[in-house]
DNA sequence: ACCGTCACG
DNA sequence: ACGTACGTGACGGTT
């Protein structure tokens, strides 16, 4: 039984384009419409099992319809370039799929499909027409079903004549009459003004066709009669325009549309070009098809206790290892085992074997810093193994870290994804082997052995490729001398942890709880009833429906109730101030009291955070489980939380040192702005200095308001300024904000030049870099969409600044860690908070450290302006301010 | 899994 | 006319 699928190519491409966010591959090619189209094709092939397949496209700007009505499709917005550039890709993709495509000058896809369905009707072939265009329903017949895309792209709704009858009460051909009466604004087909779908259906149910409606116009009432009579000609013409032409002079035989499956290789290479990673995984292409260096058979040996001694002899030739760690938080994760690759054979030793007596030589080897092996996510392995009493040393390459540096914005840096991106195949994604979420399960030992063995082998194969790529992009030094050493420093800090006074934290929680209870009671009283204050939905109803407060701002899902909105409502109702207080305290309670208590390690009494080194697009670190980079400080109430972070040895102190204005100093250096450099050379208060220059007043005439504005401008400059953003921040008009910015740039001309040049550089190269050559790609820098482009421009301005500051503190960390070790100081580095480092220090080292730390931070790198770091210490983190 | 909110630099 | 300041993570609620 033949089954023919006919796709309205333009319609589906359009739907996909507007339904999906703009995706780009790394070369800046837009791919969202092609992606949507692809998922639809895959779904159709799987579900419909077509024997024949064809995609029709519109061809030529002028069709025969324009002869009768030259405004046809007039007023329609021009196809955006982000979509038009995808049509060649789409056609290439269809070829890879092995799907016939057809177009004919002067005809639209509808007409081609209309003609083919007529022929199919005659020959009794089953047809499925896929389109987003309701007009096509006119083609439905016992043989022909129409699949209309619903919201989005992946869902379709099937219409056969019965379904059309049920939905509209019309025969398929009457769809033409429907459109004749109601018109179609998107095609600029007029219809009868004022007649929408409802009226049109009513008329058709009564009279059956446009012609009959016109013939019985006299029977219609008042206004309607008048409209129908005046626009009778429009209705006739509209019907004609809406009629799909089913006699296109074309010869396309069924044989030519035969579909016999897709060719894996062509499809895989197309998916690779488009960077459809999820599809590449899902399709399970063989390595050959995927164009990857074909993975050869790999012998994977299982190392048990009886084989451990023999295996130990092979260790000296091992070039890559992989430590399988299951669980998000490496401090509490399960180490499953370690796999090894010696250039020939893979070996896998489960953790219990490594921990056994027989595993001693393996443990010794793992701890040997003089060996050189490649691995993946050494940082994580280091932390997880340390909890097993195993030291991991001597990893001289990290695939994850390299993959991150080569493109920090990549969504995931899994080993399989990085390998595949660099044309090394043979490894399945963990998800495909282990399952995910609730379905996660370690497989049988043979599968596990092979999977983990393969990981070690893939690390060995991809390492030289990544080394080369790092060289080519001038990041080899950044990798080997900064990021890789840093990963060991981080692991050390995390293992060390920071002691938390849990009892004190609990006490704070009890006090807080009483105040929260009181606030809740007051709020319920004022609201006239109980509700869940934590639910923005319920709170919105109370404020804006029940209490009738004015709506200031809306979110996607309803009323906004954020602090900014509440501040504006504070004067209008007593409840609002209580809500603000409640929010503040509830945040402290849930995130910083209960949240932190949950993360205190039972054995150590400490909090061991985990720094992610491969997440932030700018090169910053981020902190998890818990996040110790966002402990409150701005409000005294929350700042008290810092009192519970204490030294882990009696009599020691907490020492904190932070860079002063590091981002603006970095800006001064990279922009070489004379005024800004001068300000820092004189170690001036930068916001006051900015106020003096921008407002043209003497230092003593800078009032607090002027300084506040100048500070906001400085922040804005670092973020990639826009008048809108500044106006929001300072609560002034856009015009005023624009004047501030102009004033700023007229003083700091070097900064203006930098901002212009960095955006131009981003356009030219497609990426921006930090001082240490860290890179960030900005594919949207040339987008025609204003928002996307502006975002990329601001990112181009901000990333070199934020990223260079991140480079610098990372340098300081590596150098300081080195120094502490070399000089055998007992002091320990515990935390990093972007521009701040926190240590615990014994008394006898306090003076040394108070000098050493800021000095090393200031000298971490030599810029054309001085760097400054302030230091302070106390019995806890709160006091070190 | 996603959203709104809010903590930090 | 558009609508956003840059970079993160965690929580509770909702879907």
TrEMBL record:
Keywords for the protein's UniProt record, in alphabetical order: DNA damage, DNA repair, DNA replication, DNA-binding, DNA-directed DNA polymerase, Exonuclease, Hydrolase, Nuclease, Nucleotidyltransferase, Transferase
Keyword Transferase in record: yes
Boundaries of every DNA-directed DNA polymerase family A palm domain copy: 638-845
Entry GO MF terms: DNA-directed DNA polymerase activity
Recorded catalytic activity of this chain's protein: DNA(n) + a 2'-deoxyribonucleoside 5'-triphosphate = DNA(n+1) + diphosphate
Coiled coil regions in record: none
Broad EC category: transferase
Domain 5'-3' exonuclease residue range list: 2-260
Organism domain of life: Bacteria
Pfam family, one: 5_3_exonuc_N
Subunit structure: Single-chain monomer with multiple functions.
InterPro entries given in the database record: 3'-5'_exonuclease_dom (IPR002562), 5-3_exonucl_a-hlix_arch_N (IPR020046), 5-3_exonuclease (IPR002421), 5-3_exonuclease_C_sf (IPR036279), DNA-dir_DNA_pol_A_CS (IPR019760), DNA-dir_DNA_pol_A_palm_dom (IPR001098), DNA/RNA_pol_sf (IPR043502), DNA_polI_exonuclease (IPR054690)
Protein EC: 2.7.7.7
Family: Belongs to the DNA polymerase type-A family.
Record-given protein name: DNA polymerase I
Matches recorded under Gene3D superfamilies: 3.30.70.370, 5' to 3' exonuclease, C-terminal subdomain (1.10.150.20), 5'-nuclease (3.40.50.1010), Ribonuclease H-like superfamily/Ribonuclease H (3.30.420.10), Taq DNA Polymerase, Chain T, domain 4 (1.20.1060.10)
Domain 3'-5' exonuclease: 300-471
């Amino acid at each position: 039984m033949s089954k023919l699928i006919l796709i309205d190519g333009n319609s589906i491409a359009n739907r996909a384009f507007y339904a999906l966010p703009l995706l780009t591959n790394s070369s800046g090619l837009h791919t969202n419409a092609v992606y949507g189209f692809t998922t639809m094709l895959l779904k159709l092939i799987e579900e419909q099992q077509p024997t024949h397949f064809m995609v029709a496209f519109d061809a030529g700007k002028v069709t025969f319809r324009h002869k009768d009505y030259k405004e046809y499709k007039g007023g329609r917005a021009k196809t955006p370039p982000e979509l038009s550039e995808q049509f060649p890709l789409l056609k290439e993709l269809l070829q890879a799929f092995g799907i016939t495509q057809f177009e004919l000058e002067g005809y639209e896809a509808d007409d081609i499909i209309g003609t083919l369905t007529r022929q199919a009707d005659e020959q009794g072939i089953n047809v499925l027409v896929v389109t987003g265009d309701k007009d096509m329903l006119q083609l439905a017949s016992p043989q022909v079903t129409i699949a209309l895309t619903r919201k989005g792209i992946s869902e379709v709704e099937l219409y056969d004549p019965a379904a059309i009858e049920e939905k509209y009460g019309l025969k398929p051909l009457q769809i033409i009459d429907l459109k004749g009466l109601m018109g179609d604004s998107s095609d600029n087909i007029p219809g009868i003004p004022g007649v929408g779908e409802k009226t049109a259906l009513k008329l058709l149910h009564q009279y059956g066709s446009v012609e009959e409606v016109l013939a019985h116009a006299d029977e219609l009432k008042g206004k309607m009669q008048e409209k129908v009579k005046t626009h009778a000609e429009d209705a006739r013409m509209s019907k004609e325009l809406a009629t799909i032409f089913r006699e296109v002079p074309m010869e396309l035989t069924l044989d030519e549309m035969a579909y016999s499956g897709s060719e894996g290789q062509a499809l895989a290479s197309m998916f690779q070009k488009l960077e459809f990673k999820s599809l590449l995984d899902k399709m399970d292409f063989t390595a050959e098809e995927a164009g990857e260096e074909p993975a050869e058979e790999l012998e994977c040996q299982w190392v048990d206790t009886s084989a451990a001694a023999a295996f130990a002899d092979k260790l000296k030739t091992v070039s890559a290892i992989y430590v399988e760690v299951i669980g998000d938080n490496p401090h509490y994760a399960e180490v499953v085992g370690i796999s090894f690759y010696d250039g020939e054979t893979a070996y896998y030793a489960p953790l219990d074997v490594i921990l056994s007596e027989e595993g001693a030589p393996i443990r010794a080897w793992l701890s040997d810093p003089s060996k050189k092996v490649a691995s993946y996510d050494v940082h994580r392995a280091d932390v997880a193994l340390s909890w097993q009493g195993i030291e991991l040393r001597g990893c001289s390459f990290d695939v994850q870290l390299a993959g991150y540096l080569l493109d920090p914005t990549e969504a995931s840096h899994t080993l399989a994804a990085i390998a595949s991106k660099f044309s090394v195949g043979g490894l399945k994604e963990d998800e495909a082997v282990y399952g995910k979420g609730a379905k996660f399960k370690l497989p049988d030992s043979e599968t596990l052995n092979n999977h983990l063995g393969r990981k070690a082998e893939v690390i060995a194969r991809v390492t030289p490729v990544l080394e080369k790529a790092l060289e080519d992009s001038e990041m080899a030094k950044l990798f080997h001398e900064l990021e890789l050493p840093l990963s060991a420093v981080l692991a050390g800090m995390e293992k060390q942890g920071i002691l938390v006074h849990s009892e004190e934290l609990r006490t704070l929680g009890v006090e807080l709880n009483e105040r929260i209870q009181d606030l809740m009671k007051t709020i319920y009283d004022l609201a006239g009833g109980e509700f869940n204050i934590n639910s923005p939905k319920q709170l919105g109803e109370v404020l804006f429906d029940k209490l009738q407060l004015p709506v200031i701002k809306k979110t996607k899902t309803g009323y906004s109730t954020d602090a900014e909105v509440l501040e504006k409502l504070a004067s209008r109702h007593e409840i609002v101030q209580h809500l603000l207080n409640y929010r503040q305290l509830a945040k402290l309670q849930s995130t910083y009291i209960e949240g932190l208590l949950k993360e205190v390690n039972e054995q150590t009494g400490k909090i061991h955070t985990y720094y992610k080194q491969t997440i932030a697009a700018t090169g910053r670190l981020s902190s998890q489980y818990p996040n110790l980079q966002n402990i409150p400080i701005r409000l005294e109430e929350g700042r008290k939380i810092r009192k519970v972070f204490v030294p882990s040895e009696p009599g020691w102190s907490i020492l904190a040192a932070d860079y002063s204005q590091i981002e603006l100093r970095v800006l001064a250096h990279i922009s070489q702005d004379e005024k800004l450099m001068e300000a820092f050379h004189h170690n001036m208060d930068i916001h006051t200095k900015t106020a003096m220059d921008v407002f043209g007043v003497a230092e003593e005439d800078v009032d607090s308001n002027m300084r506040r504005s100048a500070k906001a401008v400085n922040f804005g400059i670092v973020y990639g300024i826009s008048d809108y953003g500044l106006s929001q921040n300072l609560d002034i008009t856009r015009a005023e904000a624009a004047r501030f910015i102009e004033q700023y740039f007229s003083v700091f001309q070097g900064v203006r030049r930098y901002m212009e040049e960095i955006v131009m550089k981003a356009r030219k190269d497609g990426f921006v870099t930090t001082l240490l050559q860290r890179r960030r790609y900005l594919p949207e820098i040339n987008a025609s969409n204003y928002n996307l482009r502006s975002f990329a421009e601001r990112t181009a301005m901000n990333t070199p600044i934020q990223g260079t500051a991140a480079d610098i503190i990372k340098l300081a960390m590596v150098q300081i860690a080195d120094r502490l070790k070399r000089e055998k100081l007992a002091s320990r580095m515990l935390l990093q908070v972007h521009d701040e480092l926190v240590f615990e220090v014994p008394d006898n080292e306090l003076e040394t450290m108070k000098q050493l730390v800021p000095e090393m931070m200031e000298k971490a790198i030599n810029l054309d302006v001085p760097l400054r770091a302030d230091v302070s210490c106390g019995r806890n983190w709160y006091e070190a301010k």
